[in-house]
Write a structure and sequence with these properties.
By secondary structure, this protein is mainly alpha-helical. Helices cover 58% and strands 8% of the residues. Strands 1-2 form a two-stranded antiparallel ribbon. The chain is elongated. It starts with a helix and ends with a strand. The relative contact order is 0.08.
């Protein structure tokens, strides 16, 4: 893994935590940026990058679920049909109600 990718991932992690902290604090973006000495443009830039990274992770998870390991074969699932059964209810009046 090259150093640039590691640095970017560290920054993404840092900003993901900062954005989560801001959300939990209830501060406006303007207040948060002023308090932390960050420009709003920088905040929005990293918010977008964090959001894109999350989407990429979700897509990778979806793709990995559809992959079939080497040497295995994907089988089609059969629809499950309920078993046929009869429900009998015996009423106190000696009447039997059957539902199939």
């Amino acid at each position: 893994m090259d150093m640039e990718k590691v640095t970017t991932e560290q920054q993404l992690s840092k900003w993901a935590q900062l954005i989560q902290t801001r959300l939990e604090s209830g501060q406006s973006i303007k207040e948060f940026c002023r308090t932390n000495g960050v420009s709003k443009a920088t905040y929005y830039y990293w918010q977008k990058k964090v959001s894109e990274a999350k989407c990429t992770v979700v897509e990778e998870v979806k793709e990995s679920k559809t992959e079939v390991p080497s040497g295995w074969m994907q089988l089609a699932s059969k629809p499950v049909y309920p078993a046929k059964a009869t429900l009998e209810i015996m009423l106190p009046t000696t009447m039997i109600l059957s539902v199939t």
